[in-house]
Amino acid sequence: LADGMAGPLNDEQRVHLGHLRDSARHLHSLVDDVLDLSRIESGRVEVNLETVTVADVAGMLDGNVRALAAAKGLAWDIGPLPDLEMVTDPRKLMQILLNLLGNAVKYTASGSVRLDVEAAEREIRFLVTDTGPGIAESARHRLFEEFVRLEADCQASEGSGLGLAIAARYARLLGGSVELTHSSSSGSTFAVTLPVLPDA
């Protein structure tokens, strides 16, 4: 309808169709999140391990996040990448990082979003940093709970309150963790820590 396949539309009709489209997309996202969480909680999630390079992971993220950041007028940058391979489930790793980077873009009004990668002997840390408003200390213990949306989140945009919960659970499935390592009025940093080679 919005493309005019059923005939020309006036401005008011386009506005209403836009609302319908946005609501449908939000509902689709919510259903996907609930299904993901249900599969995780019931133990029906398969982990498909592959060997990938850190550069491959960053490259897959770049196009998606660059478009989101550009739409909000934010700078997007990826720091120097270690020349390293890791064994993980690349689809789940991508979902973890896209959830974190998507949130960073969503709740940052101006400034930048950045991805850095640090390598240790047996683990890799993906650091997602933004210049958003930060997260109140009193609310940080609830960040990874299901269906939790902080007051600032609710004012900023729609969401299911499941993105961080799913990211944390997927990270545990891959033998790692997600944590908030820094937050202030000038921005926040989340760290995803994963093994280079997971336990059997």
What would your notes on this structure say?
With 200 residues, the chain is an alpha+beta fold. The chain is built from five helices and seven strands; from the N terminus they run αβαββαββααββ. It has helices spanning 11-42, 54-71, 90-106, 151-156, 163-173, and strands spanning 50-53, 75-78, 85-88, 112-119, 123-130, 177-184, 187-195. The strands form two sheets. A five-stranded mixed beta sheet has the order 2-4-5-7-6, covered by helices on one side. Helix 1 runs parallel beside helix 5, helix 2 (54-71) packs parallel to helix 3 (90-106) and helix 3 packs antiparallel against helix 5. The longest helix has 32 residues, at 11-42. The termini are far apart. Mean pLDDT is 86; it is low at 151-156.
In short:
This protein has helices spanning 11-42, 54-71, 90-106, 151-156, 163-173, and strands spanning 50-53, 75-78, 85-88, 112-119, 123-130, 177-184, 187-195. By secondary structure, the chain is of the alpha+beta class.
Strand order of the largest sheet: 2-4-5-7-6
Order of helices and strands: HEHEEHEEHHEE
- Integer average pLDDT: 86
Poorly predicted ranges: 151-156
- Approximate shape: globular
Describe the biggest sheet? 5 strands, mixed
Percentage beta strand:
15-25%
